[in-house]
Amino acid sequence: MICRPIKADEFLQAEKIMNIAFRFHWDKYPENESGDRHKNIYGAFEEEQMTSCIVANAYTCAYFGNDVGMLGVGGVATLPEYRRTGHIRHLLTMILQESYKRGDVLGSLYPFSHPFYRKFGFENGQYMDKLHLDTDELRPFPCTGTVRMFTPGEDPAVIKEMYNTFIHNRNFGCRRGDWEWNALKKDPYLDHVYTYLWYADDGKAEAYFTVIHEEGSKNFVIRDWAFLSARAVRGVFGFLGVLAPSGDKTEIWLPGDVNPFLLFNEPYAVRVEHTSRGMIRVVNVEKALQLHPWEEGTAFAVAVTDEQIPENNGVFSVVCKDGETTVCKTDAAPDAKFSIQAFSLICCGVSSVEDVLFNRTDCEAVGDTAALNRAFIHNHNYLREDF
Q1: pTM for this entry
Q2: Beta strands of the chain (E only): which ranges?
């Protein structure tokens, strides 16, 4: 078996393998690649036969206010007759090591099986809160500010700037390319996908939100939206209440800092579905520690074990003094030991050190963990891209 990046003329082979796994709705075969769509796709081969493929998307995402490289794993597929032969295991290990060499800090994927991808250092760390309610329940929110519908062909700069500001301090929020803004190309009169901007009374654009009218129903779904203030959230909800005559139910995907049980006067009207959306991973431990916003005087050492990326193994010392952070490997005894899975949860702000030590068996307190408890802070994660 050979694992390598695929060539341009092997693109259709990879698409066919993915089609068997994910059942695309094709009217005809896609064109074999002559551009760059084959880039970032890796394949496993038995002689001339491609048996498996994987897409190693290269994203730029937010991490505590920094832009860092993120590996987005997708398109993981194997021909049925070659499954359980270790081909995907070899491909995943390869792309993780390539991601480290490229300088990425983080990785993410949407698993078909959490236990399977946990073997490769990923952990359940992306959660989704979906607010479900009768659209009538949004009526009590006052219609403040001004709302304007965006139409295809307009300059989307204000929406993109708003989004980039919104994700700046939300870990895993991806800088979007043209493809990720496809919703802005939808014709509201043909596709029933509507993007609106909310303006405060002072004329400042402080929110955008895309409303999808589900086909064959009277339901609305708001998956993609961003806001720059609390008043904008209330303003958006107030406008959505205006939609009550046109839609019976509304589903809103909530960022972590929107708590509907505090926003709504009648919390009994609120139903929140808290679900797992994806898995995360730190690809480069040293860089992740270096970029983390430590408080002055922070000093600790942690041991990390990573079976796929050898450079992440060892005891890492972190010292923040005079505004400068020093990270290095050390022979000193660690304050705690973590698998890369457990470390990723605390380093990315998903879970506290106390929660991880209490609930998991792949980490261990060795010394005094008080410094660790203070150092690793909670931070909202936000990943909406599908890959």
Answers
A1: 0.93
A2: 2-5, 41-46, 49-63, 66-78, 106-109, 123-134, 146-150, 193-199, 205-213, 219-222, 225-227, 249-254, 271-282, 299-305, 314-321, 324-329, 336-339, 363-365
